[in-house]
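Follow-up to my earlier ticket, as requested here are the two runs.
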Amino acid sequence: MEILLIRPFQLWPIFYYESFRQPQEKRRHLLIIEMNYYEAMRLEIDPYDRSYILYNIGLIHTSNGEHTKALEYYFRALERNPFLPQAFNNMAGDSEIAEAWFDQAAEYWKQAITLTPGNYIEAHNWLKITGRFE
């Protein structure tokens, strides 16, 4: 029996497709995808690849409106891969989280911008406007 391991980046087309589905049906499909990510976590041993799996589980929770749970997975992804700017961006950009943690959000955005200069222009502008850009 051969086990086929799908790398997290191979699932991006699925997320793009899922974004156009009806909400109830979308939630059901996201739960199925989430179960596949949990299985991938069980099988994957490389911390770098595990960070992307955790990040993608965080995306699913964000999509379902479960912001606190999403934040937990973004933190876990960053523990394994501190050079994951999209996790910093999502943690800072989530309005419910950012509302409570403006200063921490600024630090996350600074880290995302440092890792990928030229990206996250809106975040860069927000840092300037709020006087948090150094």
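Run two:
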Amino acid sequence: TLAQGQKVVPVPVRGFSFLVVGCRGWWEITTKMLRNLLALRQIARRTISTASRRQFENKVPEKQKLFQEDNGIPVHLKGGIADALLYRATMVLTVGGTAYAIYQLAVASFPKKQD
């Protein structure tokens, strides 16, 4: 941030770059970098905007109905195939990690004999 009364002043250096002087020093910025920076500011302004360009359909009532349905499926699997795959991957990693930890404890508990 700049102190009160200070400004960032672009000073032309060569044909296609600027020397930007601020309160913390100076930087040489090419016009391509400047264009990219201005485009980034424009994109950031667009994405943070409170006005939505398109309206999304409210799917909350459908999801509530799906998850409150009494069909014998556990709630953590009611989301479909993605939930089932995530659950299985979690179980494989948990069981595999536990087995590996027990193996490493067994290896560490019997040190190698020194000759």
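The only thing I checked on run two: The two ends are 67 Å apart (CA to CA). Let me know what else you need.
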